[in-house]
Amino acid sequence: MPTFRRSPLPQNHNSSNGTVDTERKTPRTSRNEDPAAAKQIPYGSNKLASLPKPTTPPRRASSAGPPSQKSLRRTPGIQARTPGAHHLGSTRRPIAVTPHGRAAIREVEARRAGLTPGKDRRRSGRQQRESPRDALRVLSRLLAPKTQPVIPTPPARLVTDMKRRKYPDDDLDDDAAPERPRLSMPLEDSDEDDSLLLPPRSAGVENEDYTGYSIEIPRRAVSEQAPGRYSRGSFGSVRLSDQFANLNEAGRGHVFDSSFAMGGAYDDENGEEFMDNYLPREDTVTLRNLGFDIGRQSDIRPQVLTGDDMEDTFVLTVPPRDVHDLEKTFYSNPPIAPNDENEASIVEESLAILQPMEIEEEEEELFPEVYDPEQPESPAEVDQEDMEVEEGETTVEAAIATHAVKKRKKVKISKHGIRYPSLPAVVVKKLATMYARTAGNSKAKISKDTLDAIMQASDWFLEQVSEDLGAYAKHAGRKTIDESDMMTLMKRQRQTNATTTAFSLAQRHLPRELLQELRMAPPPKLKKGRRLVRVDEEEEEQ
Amino acid sequence: MAANKFYPRATVRKIVKAHSKRNLSKNADVLIFLDYGLFMNTLMKEATINSKQAGERGISAKSVKKVTELALSKFKG
């Protein structure tokens, strides 16, 4: 049957049959017909069965030929007329149209014919004969019968050697000429030769122990030491890891300025020496306190990850403290005085606040109280504020917190000396989960550490943003931060552009209630509208 | 309300005011919060990518810390 379908010229065999006119059917139709019709002409069907040989010679020939390419080219018409022929065809070989397919077929056939590339090599072993190792082997066969085993050095000489070694006081002149070094190894009695052949000795440096110390321990370039050291104005950007060094080696803190008291990254001596030698100490503080407006002040940098290792070993000597004491100290001491120590202490305090909450909650009772008397804290918000202070200025109190585990409101102090809260963790977590989900992390489980990191990042972000906004407003000569400032900011952040407005973003990201408030805000809308209107007018005028 | 729970308006205003030492106009904080949302979007996206590259399952604090700088630098005004 497949031969019927394949035969491209049904008229041919019909004419050759002689019974053509009555049947008048292509093989296809005959196939589709009911068997009764076929039975009517029994010999016709027989002839049909024997048909393909005469009718499709080119096809046959092509399939029989070894590389089917030429023959395939010879019969393009057949191929075109019966595109499905090769599916059912008697030819086993698929017709390869593409050059790659043809190449593959050629390859297969070559393999069948035994023309594999490795055939010669395998059969004749030519490669092995040609290899240098074989040449050596041949050489060894030639040389083997003639070689004699090496005669070892006589033991008498050995004894003299030993003597010479026993008396090292002898002058060199007295000695005979030094023995000639042996350049070959004897085949036998290796025991005696061991004394002659000194084991390879490395350079003397390696034998000593001090190499471990003399190897330079990786250090950072000064430029990458601490980002934002000179111009950082905020306390939120102080690295947590910086703080740990001060705790570990207490008393060191007063040496460094707070803004780069980051010895924590360097435990070894080299690092500290390096810090001592190369880092400026108090210049940054004085600069800042002089009131220079050096460029961009925010310069928030995230926590450097070198501190990650430190975090485990970090022990918070963070005490809770009493509200009343705080009150006293608060009212007796002025708020922030612009000197180094004070600033450092504030930084430390802010750091203490930035620490993960769990530590504070769990271990509060365990530690003796340490707090800074100069800390400006109002009793209302402090409640129970943990602080880390440098040792030189601390007064240690022996009080122990009675109500230890308590959720505190975290308060940080901006560079302007204004206290501010951080975003509530619930909100941050909700947002983070939402956006993590959109980012493809469908089962976003945000752990506490992660949340802390995110909170830190958002604190930095808000600080950065609000400083930018303040700069914009200042530039515009305004006292308040406008929506227009915010628009400028978002434009500069490349969040809004010609196609995306703040409102389209708001529609995507803000809940409906907030969106409504934004809609009601006239100024940004007016601004946008005005620009559009102006363009229209110009067009109309033209 | 739900919006209040979602969006700590007073807190945002306080934070911005503390940092910039300037007052905020009436609805600027909404835009700030919008910007914050965009920042969080970027941050979480980057953190997800980072944690996936590191082969972590969830989002670890480490990956967040790593991408924080990147995200912050994207949102520099």
TrEMBL record, chain A:
Keyword Nucleus found: yes
Biased composition (Low complexity): 58-68
Domain CENP-T/Histone H4 histone fold as annotated: residue spans: 416-522
Subcellular location: Chromosome; Nucleus
Location (main, coarse): nucleus
InterPro entries, per the entry: CENP-T/H4_C (IPR035425), Histone-fold (IPR009072)
Compositional bias of kind Basic and acidic residues: 21-36, 127-136
Gene Ontology MF term list: chromatin binding; protein heterodimerization activity
Region described as Disordered: spans on this chain: 1-205, 521-542
Polar residues: compositionally biased ranges: 9-20
Keyword annotations of the record: Chromosome, Nucleus
Top-level taxonomic group: Eukaryota
GO cellular component, one term: chromosome
GO BP: replication fork processing; resolution of meiotic recombination intermediates
PANTHER family linked: CENP-T_HISTONE H4 HISTONE FOLD DOMAIN-CONTAINING PROTEIN (PTHR22980:SF5), CORTISTATIN (PTHR22980)
Protein's name according to its UniProt entry: Centromere kinetochore component CENP-T-domain-containing protein
Annotated organism of origin: Calycina marina
From TrEMBL, chain B:
Residues of the signal peptide: none
Gene Ontology biological process: chromosome segregation; kinetochore assembly; mitotic cell cycle
A Pfam family that the UniProt record links to this protein: CBFD_NFYB_HMF
Subcellular location: Chromosome, Centromere, Kinetochore; Nucleus
Alphabetical keyword list: Centromere, Chromosome, Kinetochore, Nucleus
Classification via SUPFAM superfamilies: Histone-fold (SSF47113)
Cellular component per GO, a single term: nucleoplasm
GO MF term set: protein heterodimerization activity
Coiled-coil regions, chain positions: none
Domain of life: Eukaryota
Domain Transcription factor CBF/NF-Y/archaeal histone stretches: 8-66
Family of this protein: Belongs to the CENP-W/WIP1 family.
Protein name, as recorded: Transcription factor CBF/NF-Y/archaeal histone domain-containing protein
